[in-house]
Design goal:
The protein has a 7-stranded mixed β-sheet, covered by helices on one side. The chain has a 4-stranded mixed β-sheet with strand order 9-10-12-13. Strands 1-4 form a two-stranded parallel sheet. It is of the alpha/beta class. The chain contains 11 helices and 19 strands. The structure holds 2-acetamido-2-deoxy-beta-D-glucopyranose (7 copies). The site of one 2-acetamido-2-deoxy-beta-D-glucopyranose (NAG) has 4 residues, from loops.
Length: about 425
């Protein structure tokens, strides 16, 4: 249809060249727009997922659906990591969602994350779906994930939140694989889940600071004695070579204080030669060491590099307006406030990561989980967790100060991280 303003134009005695130019510009814009649409929808990774515009599906069912309107008028694009900002969106409750696994069906979940098994009774936290504003995020498809991993090694490297994500990934895919065609070997530092049927592995490597430190191995250590060797990575990183897909993270271990004992160079006085740096400075030095290793070792034609951004902690309930609360204890609903950002996520640290990655030769794809996880005060392990290998007793569970508001229940929020990861893969 031609806009009426254009049809009226001759009557206003506009000179012909201007009309022609305007019409041409309009046609050009329409062509460009159509081009963009077809480019997006033909992106190769969507070939295997029939990508519906939600609008056509969801009219019937689900009275519990909280946001019918958004699903009726839906002009969002199919997900494209380059085009769609996943941070910008909302959690939509859908009572009929069934997670692909439970913490009883999947045998690989640590006690730290198996909330339902540990006694958590509410389960709404498993039924929220992240909907980016600008695009539709495809549901996690285990068969598609395995096809993408055929003949490949996928390695998650980082801290306990990275292990949280790794276990989520393993559980999301493992239930479609017959018992005899899979195996798990857990190690202190390195764990490997093998999918024989696909000749694929999904691995985890413990490296909470990525670089070396003196307290990596003693997970419960005196934080004051921690010394980080910000320029040492090569030795452990030997085990990160020959991998097809690397997913890194490091954040929460840096946040134990404002300053961090930092060691670098080979000084004769060894561990006495440390200096205290502001956390962001030490973090930057360490990430540069990591970036140099990646740039000098990784062939981007063979290996893809991802980085999971910081996972928010929810230890100050006043942040989200629950003045009488303690940490994330008893929270059963996400924060509603748009762009909510608590004190547990340090934007300066985020910008260090972004800055370091921008100057790398090897492209790094971010799995930007921070904003979407910020809302999820209800998703943490809370008191349904362990301490020193033992589940909290019923008595201990009553004490809100025992709540773990750093790690996440599985199934739960990390499944959404992996949904984004798979869509970006
Ligand atoms: C949804 O639509 C109804 C009417 O159809 C309207 O009253 C309501 O404000 C809309 N809600 C949103 C969030 O757009
Ligand atoms: C809610 O989840 C069910 C089951 O996964 C799905 O069929 C339905 O389309 C979802 N509803 C909306 C509005 O997304
Ligand atoms: C299995 O995958 C590895 C890479 O992870 C590859 O080196 C090997 O050749 C593959 N084996 C088969 C039988 O495809
Ligand atoms: C790392 O690699 C070295 C050399 O290949 C090997 O000896 C060591 O066992 C590996 N360590 C882990 C934790 O996999
Ligand atoms: C990666 O592939 C491109 C194009 O095929 C080639 O020009 C480049 O040299 C390759 N890079 C490496 C590190 O092999
Ligand atoms: C936590 O929730 C339970 C059940 O809803 C309630 O009985 C208890 O009083 C709450 N505790 C606190 C400290 O809010
Ligand atoms: C992740 O998203 C947030 C917005 O929520 C943005 O501020 C931040 O820069 C992004 N981080 C990276 C590393 O791209």
């Amino acid at each position: 249809m031609i806009p009426s303003s254009l049809m009226k134009a001759p009557r206003a005695k506009l000179p012909l060249p201007i009309i022609i130019a305007t019409v041409c510009a309009l046609v050009f814009i329409i062509v460009l727009y159509a081009e963009r649409l077809s480019f997006l929808s033909s992106s190769s990774f969507f070939k295997l997922t029939p990508c519906s515009r939600r609008g056509f599906k969801s009219k019937s069912s689900d009275k519990a659906e909280e946001n019918i309107n958004a699903s009726l008028i839906d002009d969002r694009f199919d997900f494209d990591p380059e085009e769609c900002n996943v941070a910008n969106g909302k959690w939509v409750f859908n009572r009929s969602i069934k997670p692909l696994y439970t913490d009883r069906s999947c045998p690989y979940i640590d006690k730290q994350f198996s909330c339902a098994k540990n006694g958590r009774l509410d389960s709404d936290y498993e039924r929220w779906e992240w909907q980016p504003e600008d695009c539709t995020l495809p549901r996690f498809n285990p068969e598609l994930a395995l096809k993408k991993l055929r003949g490949k090694r996928l390695l998650f490297v980082g801290d306990s939140l990275q292990r949280n994500q790794w276990e989520s990934f393993v559980c999301l895919v493992e239930w479609v694989i017959p018992e005899k065609k899979k195996s798990m070997r857990r190690g202190h530092t390195h764990s490997v889940f093998k999918v024989k049927e696909y000749n694929a592995t999904i691995e985890f490597y413990w490296a909470p600071y990525l670089v070396e430190s003196n307290t990596d191995v003693n997970i419960i250590g005196d934080t004051k004695k921690r010394i980080i060797k910000v320029d040492e990575i090569a030795q452990r990183a030997i085990n990160w070579t020959g991998v097809d897909i690397l997913v890194f993270n490091t954040y929460v271990w840096w946040m134990s204080g404002l300053r961090i004992k930092t060691l670098w160079g080979s000084f004769a006085n060894g561990e006495e030669g440390f200096e205290e740096f502001d956390t962001t400075v030490a973090y930057k030095l360490a990430l540069k060491t990591w970036a140099n290793w990646v740039d000098s070792t990784i062939n981007p034609n063979k290996t893809r590099v991802f980085f999971t951004t910081m996972s928010p902690t929810h230890t100050r309930s006043a942040d989200w307006g629950n003045i009488d609360g303690v940490k994330c204890f008893n929270e059963t609903k996400p924060v509603k406030k748009k762009k909510y950002w608590g004190s547990g996520s340090d934007k300066k640290m985020m910008s260090v990561v972004a800055h370091v990655a921008k100057n790398m030769k090897v492209p790094v794809t971010f799995i930007n989980i921070t904003q979407l996880s910020e809302y999820r005060i209800d998703g943490h392990s809370s008191v349904y967790t362990e301490t020193g290998g033992k589940l909290l007793t019923e008595e201990e569970r009553k004490d809100p100060y025992n709540a773990d508001c750093i790690h996440w229940c599985l199934p739960g929020v990390p499944d959404t991280w992996n949904q984004i990861f798979l869509a970006s893969l």
